[in-house]
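Exercise 7.
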Amino acid sequence: MLAGLGRLLGASGLVAALHAGEAPAPELPLASAAAIGAPASTPYGWIDFCSRQPGECMQPPVVARNIALTPGALRAIDRVNRHVNATLQPVSNFEHWGTTLDHWDYPADGKGDCKIYALWKRKLLIEEGFPRQALLITIVRDGAGAGHAVLTVKTDRGDFVLDNLARDIRPWDAAGYVYLKRQAQEDPNVWLSIETPRGAGLAMPPAQARQLG
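Solution. The predicted structure, written as tokens, is:
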């Protein structure tokens, strides 16, 4: 299933685009960079995921790096986001795994909740040549206090989120969430708190977020 989904995406020439020296076009989106705070606790789901996927987590620390948001890079990110959102079947953690414990995994059966969407987008983007230190699993809450996960993409034009509840890529501070924590750029096993921007409002009905996230 995983290899099949990867083949569907095809070769994008992303690596060449990232190093082609393309100047940012005026139509490219622009966002701010999230303010990172103190170290935060590591989610149980990530620890459990690492116990089953040690190769994904036993990574040496690296230097922080952002993506150069060229038109080609933006097209590739958008394509992966839409592909995963359209391909996977949304189900709750309990319906999927039969447990209330937070279970993070790749979509071997083609379905899952918000963490599965975020992990799969991260994996596919890394396979396409994007630096892993710019692709960060992020934990948030909606206006009703329900937990949710998105993928933060750090670029030279700000931070954007890929969300299974939204069709489009959005600036992190326009996604309508209260931000809790995300992975550190240098080490995916280190989690850092995030300062939620003032005036951030809900971007989607809380009931929808609880059902699909």
